[in-house]
Structures are given as structure tokens and as C-alpha cells.
Write a structure and sequence with these properties.
With 164 residues, the chain is α+β, with helices and mostly antiparallel strands. The protein folds into two domains: 2-104; 107-164. The chain contains three helices and five strands. Strands 3-2-1-5-4 form a five-stranded antiparallel sheet, with helices on one face. Helix 1 (2-24) packs antiparallel against helix 2.
């Protein structure tokens, strides 16, 4: 989660630095290329870039982690969203030229947590099996073998006594 938050914060910083001048200069192809590159991060599920009046880029990852491009104006679910304005600065004059919405990839985090959970379960089962085998070997060697040896000696003593 920390790594995801760091990556999304870095994506916000990059977008805040690059996109305002691209929007200001009407560089639509560069806006799409930049947004597609940011969407490749495993921690980002969707990006919407708008200039306030229209959507300039909209992309989201589907269940297969493939990027689908569409012209959505907003994401359906509102959880895990980072919204921020794009501000172009020229001659110390600040102008809001657009907005960006980045959606976290919760599915990636859930998949990673499930992998870690199953790994821990399998590791615990393996430890239990090894521990059971060691306990069995120790009990066999320290308790059962001496009892079997004692039983054999008692049987041989009993046979000697009964033969007399």
C-alpha cells in the first residue's frame, strides 16, 4: 500500500509538471502518450485527463489488466480516486488548464495480498508437516525404541524363567 501511494503521488507530480504545458499548447498526441505511459503502472487502474470542457484522455484497465480507451468523463466508483487541477504558470500568472483523475488499482493489491496469504498458508502447512515428522522421529527414537527393547528383554527373561 505504501508503494502504491508513493507511485500514485509520483504520477500526480509528473502529471502536474508535464500536462499543463501540453494542454496549454494543444498537444493532444503527447497528452495521450503521456497518459498511456502512466497507465502502464500496476498501481494505476485508470486515468482521465480533461481541459475543463472536454475529456482529452480516458483509459481504464479491465479484468484482464488490458487497457481500454474510452471517452468517459468520470469513474463509476468513487473509492481510491485522486483528483487534482492542472495549473499552467506563465509570467507568474497561474491558470487552471485542466483536471486529472487517477484511480488506484485495488485489484492488484488484492491479488498480491491473496498470493501472500496462500504462500503463508502453504508455508505454515509445510512447517507443520516437518515439525510433525521431527516429533514423530524423536518420539520413535527416544520413547518407542527403548520400550520395544525393554519389551524384548522382559520377554526373554520371562522365557528363561518359564523354562526353569
Amino acid at each position: 500500500m505504501t508503494r502504491m501511494n508513493e507511485q500514485i503521488t509520483m504520477a500526480k507530480l509528473r502529471a502536474s509538471t508535464v500536462l499543463p504545458s501540453l494542454i496549454w499548447n494543444f498537444a493532444s498526441d503527447s497528452i495521450r502518450d503521456f497518459s498511456k505511459a502512466e497507465l502502464r503502472s500496476e498501481f494505476i487502474n485508470g486515468i482521465i485527463v480533461s481541459d475543463g470542457s472536454e475529456t482529452l484522455f480516458s483509459g481504464i484497465k479491465n479484468e484482464d489488466n488490458a487497457v481500454v480507451f474510452d471517452q468517459a468523463n468520470e469513474f463509476e466508483e468513487q473509492q481510491g480516486l485522486m483528483l487534482f487541477d492542472l495549473v499552467h504558470v506563465e509570467n507568474e500568472e497561474r491558470t487552471i488548464v485542466g483536471h486529472v483523475t487517477i484511480r488506484e488499482n485495488k485489484r492488484y493489491i488484492d491479488e498480491r495480498l491473496n498470493q501472500v496469504l496462500w504462500q503463508q498458508i502453504l508455508q505454515s502447512v509445510a512447517y507443520c508437516i516437518v515439525l510433525f515428522a521431527l516429533i514423530w522421529a524423536l518420539i520413535s527414537r527416544l520413547v518407542l525404541l527403548p520400550i520395544v527393547a525393554l519389551n524384548k528383554r522382559l520377554n526373554s527373561i520371562t522365557r528363561e524363567i518359564s523354562q526353569r
